[in-house]
Amino acid sequence: MADNTNQPKVINKSGTLKMTDETAATRKSRDIGGRPFDRRNNRRRDRVKADVAPKEYDEVTINIDRVSRTVAGGRRMRFKALVAIGNHKNKVGVGVAKGNDVTSAVQKATSKAKKNMIEFNMDRETICHEVETKVTGADVLMKPAAPGTGIIAGGVVRSIIGLTGVKNLISKSLGSTNKVNIAYAVVEGLRAQVPRKEWETTKAKPAKAKEAKAPAKKTTKKETK
Fold it and tell me: What is the domain partition of the chain in residue ranges?
């Protein structure tokens, strides 16, 4: 066993005695009670990270507006949030709410969107048929597209369709540019989708059997005489 007494004492610049390597290797940190403190075994309940479950719905904040209301004491400033949520399949919802700050407005709008979620029909990765919906002044036209086309749409329509399973779509906003009305028009257009097997097409009427008419007898000159 090595004798530590023969090793030279190392003194720091501050004048304190420096710990040798062998002493540092065997030194253990202790708590207030004098018990050895092992960081690896420190498993406090509040430090254990719980498994974070994946979100069922993804949410997108489409727009945030600052609105004011004139009251007796002056103007009252609030925030209005437009939020859309979806599961990247065939469920989507839109919510609008106001709050004193942006965070509360977004939370209220998200809860409203969850309550107003709809489930619509799809044809593979596009919509079933062409549809045009109008909500107040907003008029939105949506058409199905071939695979590989992508989503050809504006800001609000693209944000909502991006939360669904629709990958190919052609859209055009024909009326007002109000984002809230456009969002509701898109939701109504998706709600109106009817699957191909339930389409009401004009049925061919059964052809009526034509009555066979006897050919008219030709009269000759001899018969007339």
Answer: 58-119, 131-196
Looking at the chain, how many residues does it have? 225
Q: Name, in order, each residue with C-beta under 8 angstroms of 223's C-beta and a sequence gap of 6 or more.
A: none
0.85 surpassed by pTM: no
pLDDT per residue as tens digits for the range 15-73: 666 666 676 667 666 766 667 665 555 555 554 444 444 678 899 999 999 999 898 88
**Cα 45 to Cα 207: distance, rounded to the nearest angstrom:** 81
CATH 3.90.1150.10 at 131-196, yes or no: no
103: its two tokens: 């965070």
The topology under which CATH files domain 58-119 is Double Stranded RNA Binding Domain (3.30.160)
Structure tokens at 140: 């939105």
Burial of 62 (0-12, 13-18, 19+ CB in 10 A): buried
